């Protein structure tokens, strides 16, 4: 199973065998482009995907030991949610592979559905990312009930915005998301230095030294939590579920950001259930709520 992911600013591809074993995983990120434009510009991100994806797929195939896409059983591709121009690049590539090789099945994947092999159904999912922050009841494959979500920015977006406001997006070096930069600085800061009362929202940042930035990051992190790879969030979640006699399951940190492995694994699950998609009329869905999927 080849998994292709281009929903935002990571160009990713991975190959898994029938048992879900990872044979290869390749990711090309757009750190320099994002730094240059101080954020993600969809049209530029899509152009970078178009340039990078052929090389990423080729590398994933070579690392997997497969000599040709004809040896694949199927191709799974992120078809939403995400940035429309970026989704289009991955969808076109996957569609072409399957049209050129009719024996290779085509599968469209909602990339919110799966991170890694999951616990037994039913279970509750806290999905926190750059674009989403919601609580979902997973009843079965493709069978989800939205319990609640944020009405404004997602937590991941808030992290990135704070990192930009504090001008620390480049201080941690190439290849580090704003959330990770804040987490690293917060580890050196005082989480009680800034109480973040309402008036703090209107206070101008001015010139901040490194120590003040570290304290701000620590205080912000306690207020807002974090995304799934954030150690503070994991610790708080672990404590909360243990108090209720439940078990918390966290995906490995390397699979908390966009990658091809989760797409390929979701493809394996659906392929095993007999799901097949027609590549010719396939379209991407920039907005694709989990609860609109059809149970399998």
Automatic annotation (TrEMBL):
Catalytic activity: L-threonylcarbamoyladenylate + adenosine(37) in tRNA = N(6)-L-threonylcarbamoyladenosine(37) in tRNA + AMP + H(+)
EC number(s) given by UniProt: 2.3.1.234
Stored SUPFAM superfamilies: Actin-like ATPase domain (SSF53067)
One GO cellular component term: mitochondrion
Keyword Nucleotidyltransferase recorded: no
Domain Gcp-like per the UniProt entry, residue ranges: 22-265
InterPro entries reported for this sequence: ATPase_NBD, Gcp-like_dom, KAE1/TsaD
Pfam families named among the record's database cross-references: TsaD (PF00814)
UniProt keyword terms in alphabetical order: Acyltransferase, Metal-binding, Transferase, tRNA processing
MF (Gene Ontology): metal ion binding; tRNA N(6)-L-threonylcarbamoyladenine synthase activity
GO biological process: tRNA processing
Name used for this protein in its record: N(6)-L-threonylcarbamoyladenine synthase
Source organism of the structure: Phytophthora ramorum
């Amino acid at each position: 199973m080849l998994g292709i992911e281009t929903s935002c600013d990571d160009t990713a591809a991975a190959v898994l065998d029938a048992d879900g074993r990872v044979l290869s995983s390749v990711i090309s990120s757009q750190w320099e482009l994002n730094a240059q434009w101080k954020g993600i510009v969809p049209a530029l991100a899509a152009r970078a995907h178009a340039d990078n994806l052929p090389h990423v797929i080729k590398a994933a195939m070579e690392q997997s030991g497969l000599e040709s896409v004809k040896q694949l059983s199927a191709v799974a591709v992120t078809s939403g949610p995400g940035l429309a121009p970026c989704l289009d690049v991955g969808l076109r590539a996957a569609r072409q592979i399957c049209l050129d090789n009719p024996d290779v099945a085509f599968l469209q994947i909602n990339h919110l559905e799966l991170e890694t092999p999951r616990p037994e159904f039913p279970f509750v999912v806290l999905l926190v990312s750059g674009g989403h922050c919601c609580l979902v009841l997973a009843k079965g494959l493709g069978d989800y009930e939205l319990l609640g979500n944020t009405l404004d920015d997602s937590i991941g977006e808030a992290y990135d915005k704070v990192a930009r406001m504090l001008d620390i997006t480049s201080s941690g070096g190439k290849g580090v998301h704003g959330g990770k930069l804040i987490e690293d600085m917060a580890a050196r800061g005082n989480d009680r230095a800034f109480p973040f009362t309402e008036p703090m929202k209107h206070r101008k940042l001015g010139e901040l030294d490194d120590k003040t930035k570290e304290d701000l990051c620590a205080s912000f992190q306690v207020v807002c939590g974090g995304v799934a790879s954030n150690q503070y969030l994991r610790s708080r979640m672990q404590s909360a579920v243990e108090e209720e006699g439940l078990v918390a399951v966290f995906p490995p940190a390397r699979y908390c950001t966009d990658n091809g492995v989760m797409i390929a694994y979701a493809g394996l699950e659906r392929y095993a259930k007999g799901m097949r998609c027609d590549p010719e009329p396939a379209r991407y869905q920039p907005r694709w709520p989990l609860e609109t999927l059809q149970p399998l």
